[in-house]
Amino acid sequence: MQSPYADVREQFQKVFGAGPAGAGKVHVIRAPGRVNLIGEHTDYNDGFVFPMAIEPEVRIVCRSRPDGLVRLASTAFHDQIAEFSVQQKIARGQPKWANYMRGVAAELIAAGIPLVGMDALYSNTLPVGGGLSSSAAIEVGTGQALLTLAGVDMDGDRLALLCQKAEHEFAGVPVGIMDQTIVATGKAGHAMLLDCRSLAKQFVLLDPAELRVVIVNSMVKHELSGGEYAQRRRECEEGVAHFRKQDPDIRALRDVSMAQVQAAQGKLSDVVFRRCRHVVSEIARTTKAADLLTQRHYEEAGELMVESHASLRDDYEVSTVELDFLAEQATKVKGVYGARMTGGGFGGCIVTLCQPRSVEPLIEHLGKKYGEKFKIEPAAYVTTATAGAAAVE
Ligand code: GLA
Fold first, then answer.
1. Where are the domains of the chain?
2. Cα of 334 from ligand 1 centre, angstroms
3. pTM for this structure?
4. Which CATH code for domain 212-383?
5. Which of the listed CATH numbers 3.90.660.20, 3.40.50.720, 3.30.230.10, 3.40.50.300 matches domain 6-204+387-391?
6. How far, in Å, is the centroid of ligand 1 from the Cα of 343?
7. Residue range 324-363, pLDDT digits in tens
8. Cα dist from 375 to 219, 220, 322, 327, whole Å
9. Coil, strand, or helix at residue 55?
10. Ligand 1 in contact with 316 (CB < 6 A)?
11. Relative to the CA of 136, which ligand 1 atom is closest?
12. Whether the predicted pLDDT of 223 surpasses 70
């Protein structure tokens, strides 16, 4: 059987040819996207998240260079080669898309990893800006590529933290730890309940005989660097500052109870009160949903997804009319347990848990209704949970 990576390998050859004298052997790295089943905007509040790695992925064909140069091409940006050197201080630069790669190389060097040069071609089956963590996949995939060529093994959690730092410093978005962790350390067939304070993980089996995960893209672009994400973080910090005055042991919204939130109504601004109510209720829903899915109580877990969506829409205000419509329509289909927006919000995708026999009717229903209302054809992905990023060839 032909390798699924034969095409990208061929494109790599077209762009980079035989390479300079002393070039190494060609490797292929796969880095999956992710979908979060529940636990949204909880990671930077030290809470719980429940994501899984998905089949759509970033593919990187790479080969070492002896001269320390990193030369990058992408099938999304024809005729552009981005270039920098691992032997010089790495800063942000042009083209903009290569800043994720620059950031990861800079963080690996800062962590003391002796990197070598690389020729690399990036290709995607993951939509960019669709809220399925294409940026984390690019970061973690780049990390795996550079580590593979340097002959260094790194623990996935450590790589995730370095990639998160790269995103903060080179892309300017203060993201939490969910995306990089699931992309780096996902387990095939399982969703991951991640404690974002201790980074402890619990894997929950998703039985494909009973359950399907369907992702539907609203096709409305999502831009986290738009400032809204950072603003949500500041609002949560304002909440924490208030609660800390009552109890200095409170370090994050993770440490606040629902009773404390309710008692703060009228003392906090209405906006900050609602942000806190979302986060505290969402953390509780997340651990509960993971328990319910472990026990195969799909209906109840689905109800929590629906509650999560309402909370993100009304209290956290990160949904869009398109996502609200898709989530609402999805639950009208027989055999659908639950649906909600997934990821940072402001566009992107919904995620749905349903019975296997509901997949086709669900996709058909959403395509029809969404098309009628918004004149846009939504893209659907039916996916199993996959393993985290790794060298596959
Ligand atoms: C983005 C961030 C994550 C997380 C989600 C919201 O995907 O990268 O860290 O905060 O938004 O849950």
1. 6-204+387-391, 212-383
2. 30
3. 0.97
4. 3.30.70.890
5. 3.30.230.10
6. 6
7. 999 999 999 999 999 999 999 999 999 999 999 999 999 9
8. 11, 12, 11, 17
9. strand
10. no
11. 8
12. no
